[in-house]
Design goal:
By secondary structure, the protein is of the alpha+beta class. The chain is 35% helix and 11% strand.
Length: 94
């Protein structure tokens, strides 16, 4: 019997084990034409930081891929920092 691996957050690159707060991020926000479009599974804390940092218009126009999100200077700094935390870490987003 093969052991299944936990999915990996495409933003902070940490595993997302069962029971860890997680979200589905619409790469193109629903209100900007992304309803029914691709989503990615991410840690809830990573998802909250995305929406705290960028507007839906910015997300739709410039940050509609995990690679683009990781390339944003403020998000990159957070993702690098949170990557050093355990997968279940639940910090606060200010």
């Amino acid at each position: 019997m093969a052991v299944s691996e936990d999915p990996i957050c495409p933003l902070c690159l940490r595993p997302i084990p069962p029971g860890v707060p997680q979200s589905r991020h619409h790469l193109v926000p629903k209100l900007r034409g992304g309803k029914g479009e691709e989503t990615v599974l991410v840690h809830h804390i990573c998802h909250r930081v995305i929406h705290k940092t960028l507007s839906e218009t910015e997300l739709a126009r410039h940050y509609a891929t995990p690679e683009a999100l990781r390339g944003h200077p403020d998000l990159r700094r957070f993702f690098d920092w949170v990557a050093k935390r355990p997968p279940g870490w639940r910090g606060k987003v200010r």
